[in-house]
Design a protein that fits this description.
heterodimer; A: about 375 residues; 4-stranded antiparallel β-sheet; B: about 290 residues; alpha/beta; 3-stranded antiparallel β-sheet; 8 helices; globular
Chain lengths: ~375, ~290
Amino acid sequence: MYVAVKGGERAIENAHALLAETRRGNLDVPDLTIDQIREQMPLAVDRVMTEGSLYDRDLAALAIKQACGDLVEAIFLLRAYRTTLPRLAETQPIDTGAMAIRRRISATYKDLPGGQVLGPTFDYTHRLLDFALAAEGGLEAAPRNPDAEAEATPRVANLLASEDLIETEDRDPEEQAPPDLTRDPLEFPAERALRLQALARGDEGYLLALGYSTQRGYGRTHPFAGEIRMGEVEVEVFVKELGFAVSIGEITVTECEMVNQFAGSKTKPPQFTRGYGLTFGFCERKAMAMALVDRSLRARELGEEITAPAQDEEFALAHADNVEASGFVQHLKLPHYVDFQSELELVRKMREEIEARRWADEQQEDEVNHVAAE
Amino acid sequence: MSPQNNRAGMHQAEYNFAFLDEQTKRMIRRAILKAVAIPGYQVPFASREMPMPYGWGTGGIQVTASVIGPEDVLKVIDQGSDDTTNAISIRKFFERTTGVETSESTAQATLIQTRHRIPEKSLKEGQILIYQVPIPEPLRFLEPRETETRRMHALEDYGLMHVKLYEDISRHGHIATTYAYPVKVAGRYVMDPSPTPKFDNPKMDGMPALQLFGAGREKRIYAVPPYTRVTSLDFDDHPFELPSWDDVCAFCGADDTYLDEIILDDQGERMFVCSDTDHCAERRDHQEAAE
């Protein structure tokens, strides 16, 4: 009985104790430290920070430990913490063009200023289980090119923009500060800034599936990975008293710019359009999927026919948040016996009516047959 | 099971020759035989999980793994080049799992696995060109449902494709498809040549080599047997046209090859070079020898 009239409180306490035991596992194995999670599961930490909308590696690592490695649960924990934090200031827009590059690739050019920098990627590993990792061992330092950091690395979109082949994203200085999804509810139709915020917080698996669907014909966008870059950027805050911006620290981000074919419209010449993805840390799959979905959601703005789920703003955005989705799907575990009772009554009543009608019909048929036989 | 296991050179012992087990290879070869028997028809096959991600050539890799033998010489190109990262990765995979000889020379290779290009040098009898295919269905972007597109192929109902090409012409004055340009094979099936630039389409027509196409994620194999007619879809008054460049290759001076654009700085300085690196290197060698 999971919902006893009495004793529910005790049951919950016991469940928490069992969860704590499950989290700890075999006591003969050393306890996992936050430092270990932060240092050795960096990509899990990055995902939790991104979808949790909070850049704090230690808190994300703690959330992962507390959630027994369930990342959606960890994201939930971090969001619930984040919402309690006061808002002290707004930062200046980060300048990803000035990023200290650790990875930078373009699929549209063979070579370009700044070069192709693979960085720490799974991409060209063969997915063969490495049994040597099962044994603990040392590590050889990876070779680094000392000159690599010196070279300027202009963004691919800017290279295309210099030829006027791609749309530009000029921000009107008169324009108000962008809306904030965490302070205002999502309303439709949503402007792009709000959509991007929703996608940045959106579930990686969901965006992956939606982005993938556009590649398979459900709202095709002809994408090319114009550029993916990952590295550190400075975060600055403008201090009124000083009259200039000061750096408050450095964060790692992954940025993806998809370059998409656009045949042109009545008001726009044929050119390339952009889909944009940005995440905390190194969440490349998420950044790419986000860029695909962002571009798909621009169908209305670009006058493209809306035929597929990934182009439907309400469908795509209303279901992207995994804290919302996970909560609502799992709320079905809660007791629903009051509603179910009324359904039960209704189904019984409908069955009785059908039975009664069938019985009446049969009676009538019998009588007719009787008369015919006579 | 296979004598290949012992005959091949050095290869990783934990896995079978060319990674796949012999049963799987036989299943794939049966699909290939059917594909050769019905040129341009997409044969469904039980595609396996490979140690590379879907979309990175798993279809081509499975086809290569099923037809490769210890005597083969393998060349792997991506975007026409042997030294693009994914081509290197796939070549290393086969070096590791088969120990066969690899080569960058189009002429020396018996098997050529490719992504997005057909080599500039004409292929010859006995060679096999294996394409990596992301979306095998040429009608997919006109009709997303597989049940519908299979029916259209069965009935040879390609009206939708002709309407699309016609709409291109009425809107832009020309057909606005530059890669993955649809072809008709042996007068029957409309086929996706994989996303090769349309520049390469004429090379498929009557090619003496066998052309095999593998799509791992979509689980399809199709083929163009040697000396098969392959025509690019067009209209009498709007015939198929090849793209041309104002530039020539900055390295070898070729004016008849597919060129890649390379950006030299952020001031818009750029140059064009052959995408087929082996062809370009061979031309330069000849030029040096002549001097």
